[in-house]
Predict the 3D structure of the following.
Amino acid sequence: MANRISRTLCLLLLAVAVAPAAEAQLLDSGFYMEIGVGRAKFSGVTAADGDAVTRDFFDSFNLPVQTLSSSLKTRDRSNTLLGGYKLNPYFAVEGGFFRLGAYQYSGVGTVDDADTIKPATFAFGYRAKGFLVGGAATLPLGNYLELRARAGFSTTDTRIRYTATAGTDSTHDGFSANSQDIFIGAGVGLRFWDYYRFGVDLMRHNKLGSASGNGNVDVDNLVLSIGFTY
């Protein structure tokens, strides 16, 4: 997926660089805002990874896991709020906030507590949100349609919250980590009434989180957005 987006990004940037004067009736410059909702998919994580965390957690309390079944939800709703400035019809600088939701792991089984088998559960969620800054390159196609490529950097806050039970005992906690990451994206937009834009973009956030802390994940975020230029 990342390779396909990277190739698309390069092609769009090249096309913009050599494109003739646009036929589209677009504003030459100006500020704009976009609000987006979408669907984020976390990759690079499996239910087996969660199972290993579950076993390590209970082993740390001398409660070896005897049986375990688990599930993993890797998709969640996302939100974005972006603002930027169009330098010309082809290039813009922008920044904003993104929230990618979370992936959720849940495990149910039994543990051995000094030769007594007890029911046990372990569940955690991995949430990602942050701020981004970057640039966008636009290639108008006729009077209304346009292609867009994006790239930049983000500061991401990732947080894990977990809950564990063994018999009648329970505990919960959480911890966070910050990381500086790279994002790329490509999409298509439809302009109408001169100032408005409806778009669909696929954004790729690479290696969010900390490899030595709460772990790295990649996230593909499919976004539907509405924008206004003024």
About this structure: The two ends are 34 Å apart (CA to CA). The chain has one domain: 2-17+31-229. Helices lie at 2-18, 47-59. The mean pLDDT is 89.
